[in-house]
């Protein structure tokens, strides 16, 4: 999804459009002086992102948090020794090759997955809530370089095939009396 921790922490079922598979991001939480404060997202830019939450929100009231803390407030970012790090450690016990990834690092994973599926820069930027596509390009430039290499290989193939296709099309036009 590519949400920031504070955006994910305050999601409610009413923020999810199940039919369109979208999440409306218009709130975020931050910890200020030990207190959780709910306000607007980081760039104050409200946005809609893709949805994968339907099973998680089952049985929740529209205005209830999807992932509340035990006290019912938004979860705070995980610290060392928290549930997140425990789950990550268990995963790494099963698979020592599994990377050590921070909660914020999951945003980078989401960006990488979007780019690997050929999402354009504007779509990735909107999904991540960046103020502009330039921030996305600056942050993830190396991912788009790999995409550019793959594009170059596809263009090489097009150029290799194009003369045959063009010759065939031209002969077909001549047979019909078309002179391009």
How does the SSE layout of this entry go?
Layout: H1 5-9, E1 16-17, E2 22-25, E3 28-32, E4 35-39, E5 47-50, H2 54-57, H3 83-94, H4 105-116, H5 121-128, H6 133-175
Antiparallel strand pairs: 1-2, 2-5, 3-4
List keywords for this structure.
single chain, 180 residues, mainly alpha, two-stranded antiparallel sheet, 6 helices
How is this structure best described in words?
The structure is a single chain. With 180 residues, the protein is mainly alpha-helical. The chain has a 3-stranded antiparallel β-sheet. The model has no long low-confidence stretch (mean pLDDT 81). It has helices at 5-9, 54-57, 83-94, 105-116, 121-128, 133-175, and strands at 16-17, 22-25, 28-32, 35-39, 47-50. Helix 4 (105-116) packs parallel to helix 6 (133-175) and helix 5 packs antiparallel against helix 6. Strand 3 and strand 4 (35-39) form a beta hairpin. It contains 6 helices and 5 strands; from the N terminus they run H-E-E-E-E-E-H-H-H-H-H.
